[in-house]
Amino acid sequence: MPLGALHSAPLVEQATTRLREQITSGEWPVGTRLPGEVSLAATLSVGRSTVREALRALAGAGLVRSRQGAGVFVIATEPSREWRDTLRRAAVGDIYEVRMLLEVQAVRLAAVRRTAKDVAAMRAALAARRQAATTDDAAFVDADIALHATVVAAAANPVLDSLFAEFIPALRRGLIELVDLLELRVADANHGDAAHSDLIDAVDAGDGRRAAAVLRAELDSTLRWLRTPTV
Amino acid sequence: MPLGALHSAPLVEQATTRLREQITSGEWPVGTRLPGEVSLAATLSVGRSTVREALRALAGAGLVRSRQGAGVFVIATEPSREWRDTLRRAAVGDIYEVRMLLEVQAVRLAAVRRTAKDVAAMRAALAARRQAATTDDAAFVDADIALHATVVAAAANPVLDSLFAEFIPALRRGLIELVDLLELRVADANHGDAAHSDLIDAVDAGDGRRAAAVLRAELDSTLRWLRTPTV
DNA sequence: TCATCTCAGGTTCTCTGACAACTGGAGAGC
DNA sequence: GCTCTCCAGTTGTCAGAGAACCTGAGATGA
Question: Which nucleotides of D are covered by protein (CB under 7 A)?
């Protein structure tokens, strides 16, 4: 692998970058119909095939969509990954607060929408969490998070699922440290088992209010610790 | 907006899907050098240009990378933007439901944490929304969303801010279509002004319960429309 | 007046062919 | 063993042609 290519980037890549900049700079907001291929080729001083390939790259990135005969339209701007940066840099307390907010509402939905299959998955995850109680902190936290993910999944909203998954890396980091710092598992390696069992029972019974209360109590006590300044 | 295209997908999209499946199925793991363009064109029974465009789409999605003379290589087996993909592809009702869930809880926090500066920003945004009432649907929806963003910002949680921003492109799309479809602004160009004014008053007064109720009523009625199957 | 149809111009889609630029491996020479 | 050259195969770019599609304007008919 050379340290750096000494020849310029292929024209398609340059064109892709130029067009992408038009989008991310706000020049072409969502909904904009891009100039036609022939016009863009003239503007960029490249062949039409080069423009087409650049547009395909932007389409593959999810920024544009083309309709034959109608044109190519901006369907998304490419934010600067602000969300993921924020999630990486934010105080764990802020992250956890949003997680809590989301999940407490999610269990209300889960209590309404859960299927027998969802409940079976929750109970299987609870069993796995119990099994992980004999292992190290990281594995235990992973099993705990996996259990919560099954509860969120029962809300039957793919956006929620995906959003919860976005939180997992940060949650994992924060929770492993917290469990270690507080030595939560010294007295009880299966810390929180009763609450999780109650949670699943409540969801199973369709009692959203109770499920939310159980989960809120659990997450709230954790949040309080996460918000406590560390010495 | 057509209910569904009655003609088959463009060949480039089909080829992209086929090639992507080879990657995501594990047939072509990371590091694999794909067959050459000429070979792929023969395999897929399309022209070489079609293959090239499909490969560009995959490159734009971050799955492959090509080196002139050397070949095209798999660099990832999963798109790296699962969350964003979900947000783009999900049913607008699912998106809106999560937005609602988030925002109703956010206003509870906002009612506790708002500063005088936050409230001033909300009122300025309300004024801007009123001004946008004289313009087109898109501008009005933008002003509406901006107002909601000021309310979320008052919750003083950067993760919430950033997360709300993630929803904006999808919300914008859905809401502009809804406003247009239902002709919500024919009778009242400044649709929903009273509710928004009440919302700000409640946040200003620190009445989280009332703020949540006002917002829930607003968002719930919109969600109901978004969940209604379109004829 | 309104609804429907037709047409023209502009758009994207696909293919072909040609040539340029590049890579990597094999073989030859030192 | 190292370096250079050559060659086959690869990607990159362009041009051109025709097909398929979309949209808006205008014409026609009820």
Answer: 9-16, 20-23
Structure letter (DSSP) for residue A33: B
In three-state secondary structure terms, B66 is strand
Please identify residues in chain B, positions 67-106, with a C-beta within 7 angstroms of any atom of strand D. Answer: 67-72
Task: For residues A223 and A226, give the distance between their C-alpha atoms in angstroms, rounded to a whole number.
Answer: 5
Chain C bases near protein CB atoms (7 A cut-off)? 9-17, 21-24
Residues near A211 by beta carbon (within 8 Å), at least 6 away in sequence: A107, A108, A110, A111, A199, A202, A203
Q: Would the CB atoms of B162 and A95 count as touching at under 8 Å?
A: no
CA gap B20, B78 in Å, rounded: 9
pLDDT band (50, 70, 90) for residue B230 = very low
- Would the pLDDT of A6 be above 60? no
Judge whether B59 is closer than 8 Å to chain A, CB to CB.
yes
Q: Would A117 be classed as within a structural domain?
A: yes
Q: Domain residues for A192?
A: 82-227
CATH number of the structural domain spanning residue B177: 1.20.120.530
Question: Is A89 found in the same domain as A69?
Answer: no
Considering the domain boundaries, does residue B198 fall inside one? yes
Q: What mean pLDDT do residues A205-213 have?
A: 93
Q: Looking at the domain assignment, is residue B6 inside a domain?
A: no
CATH of residue B47's domain is: 1.10.10.10
B76 touches chain A (CB under 8 A): no
* Domain boundary residue, one of B56, B74, B92: B74
CB contact under 8 A, A101 and B105: yes
Domains held by chain B: number: 2
B 112-151 near A (Cβ less than 8 A): 138
pTM above 0.90, yes or no: no
Residues in chain A within 8 Å Cβ distance of B16: 60
Residue B71 CA, nucleotide C19 C1', distance (Å): 19
Give the CA A41 to C1' C23 distance in Å. 29
Asked whether the beta carbons of A104 and A219 are under 8 A apart, the reply is yes
B34-52: per-residue pLDDT in tens?
A: 999 999 999 999 999 999 9
Averaged pLDDT for residues B2-15 = 68
One domain, residues B97 and B146: yes
- In percent, the amount of chain A with pLDDT more than 70 equals 88
Among A157-161, B102-106, B128-132, name the one with the lowest average pLDDT: B128-132
Q: Pick from B46, B74, B102: which residue ends a domain? A: B74
- Surface-to-core class of residue B13, CB atoms within 10 Å of its CB (0-12 exposed, 13-18 middle, 19+ buried): middle
